[in-house]
Design a protein that fits this description.
With 313 residues, the protein is mainly alpha-helical. The chain contains 15 helices and two strands. Strand 1 and strand 2 form a beta hairpin. The protein is flat, with a radius of gyration of 24 Å.
Length: 313
């Protein structure tokens, strides 16, 4: 366990260093470009030269990267030219908003995917299995922007039951809870089908195992066969897949946040890229990579704990 965690943590650190350096190099290798991005396209050559000298952008990129890397550890992530505020404040605020969506969606996706996937996989090729599999394929195949517009058209415009935007501001008379319904619904619909199919495939494989037939021949009831013998083994592989959905729910919901004007992390990164906010882009990429690699490590660790054949190697 200690060796596994040590290797994974070293991999995490190495990945963050490589990605952060590449992102920094792409954004700041050319000093004049950095100053022009900060000042805008209408800045004069004198203004660009003055800012380049003031910020030390004419120094070696390795020296500047070392200073920027030190700022990451001290919490000094720079200043956002887009939001006119320290980058740290913007990122953590937007991450908290996205985490709120992610927690609610994850709390719905996990139990629903397990119930539907197990129900479909218990009796392969039965009517229930075909119905659940077809529904999961359809929901996963519909892009987020299409389902978002469709749900907003019905529940916000036609019926008027829910707000069409989720700005987390109560000025429009809508509660925060009502503003979260549509974004969460789109995330659940899009992600649920994929996880259901993973659980269903694993459950179907387990139900074909010899020990399941032995349990049936021993006269055990069907619920005992499913819950005592099949369910635990069937959830080993999908458990890793379920944990990996955290990365999507936090950093991959840009479309959902843009459709509903939700002030989240993905929307922040898109706006920063469009506005060429270098400091915000660099810090945001590091945070996104950290979340992606961390969820991968958690998934591998959970799989090792749940699967004795891997744990005892």
């Amino acid at each position: 366990m200690f060796v596994f965690l040590s290797r994974r943590l070293l991999f995490l650190v190495a990945t963050l260093l490589v990605v952060s350096f590449l992102v920094y190099l792409l954004n700041e290798a050319a000093p004049g470009d950095v100053a022009r991005k900060i000042l805008g396209p209408y800045a004069t050559l004198e203004q660009i030269a003055l800012l380049t000298e003031e910020l030390g952008l004419n120094r070696s990129v390795f020296i500047r990267y070392g200073e920027w890397l030190g700022g990451l550890f001290t919490g000094d992530l720079g200043y956002s030219t887009l939001f006119k505020a320290p980058v740290g404040e913007i990122i953590w605020d937007r991450l908290a908003n996205t985490a709120l969506l992610a927690v609610i969606a994850f709390a719905l996706i996990v139990p629903l995917s397990i119930v539907l996937g197990v129900a479909a996989g218990m009796r392969e090729s039965a009517a229930l299995d075909r119905s659940i599999s077809l529904a999961s394929i359809i929901t996963t195949s519909i892009p987020e922007f299409a389902s978002g517009v469709f749900l907003a058209s019905i529940f916000a415009i036609w019926l008027g039951w829910l707000p069409g935007t989720s700005t987390l501001v109560r000025d429009g008379g809508w509660s925060i809870t009502s503003q979260l319904v549509l974004p969460v619904a789109v995330m659940v619909l899009y992600d649920l089908g994929y996880v259901v199919r993973m659980v269903r495939a694993s459950m179907a494989d387990v139900m074909r195992e010899p020990y399941i037939r032995t349990a049936v021949l021993k006269g055990l009831s069907w619920p005992e066969v499913v819950f005592r013998h099949a369910l635990r083994n069937a959830l080993i592989a999908p458990f890793t897949v379920i944990l990996l959905q955290i990365n999507y729910l936090v950093t991959g919901v840009v479309v959902v946040e843009m459709i509903f004007a939700y002030p989240g992390f993905g929307r922040m990164m898109l706006e920063a890229a469009l506005a060429q906010d270098i400091a915000l882009i660099e810090a945001g990429v590091v945070v996104a990579v950290f979340i992606a690699v961390s969820t991968q490590i958690l998934g591998d660790l959970a799989y090792m704990i749940l699967n004795p054949r891997v744990r005892l190697r």
